[in-house]
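Module 6 notes. Inverse folding takes a fixed backbone as the condition and produces residue identities as the prediction. Think of it as a translation problem where the source language is geometry and the target language is the twenty amino acids. Below is one complete input and output pair. Work through it position by position during the lab.
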């Protein structure tokens, strides 16, 4: 979330490019968080600080 004065902007994933590639990258990121202990620790640390959501994972 970005704030500028009295306005707030939410960052969103770009819809440009190939949707299949975006879906593949998202699934790879999800699998990595589930099975790799190092990435799992990073994910949970950022998640606890509310810096990352599932939508932002990819």
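Target side of the pair, the amino acids:
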């Amino acid at each position: 979330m970005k704030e500028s004065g009295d306005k707030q902007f939410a960052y969103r994933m770009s819809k440009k490019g190939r949707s299949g590639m975006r879906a593949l990258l998202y699934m790879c990121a999800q699998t990595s968080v589930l099975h790799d202990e190092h990435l799992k620790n990073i994910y949970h640390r950022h998640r606890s600080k509310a810096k990352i959501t599932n939508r932002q994972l990819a």
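Reference fact for the lab report: The chain has three helices and two strands.
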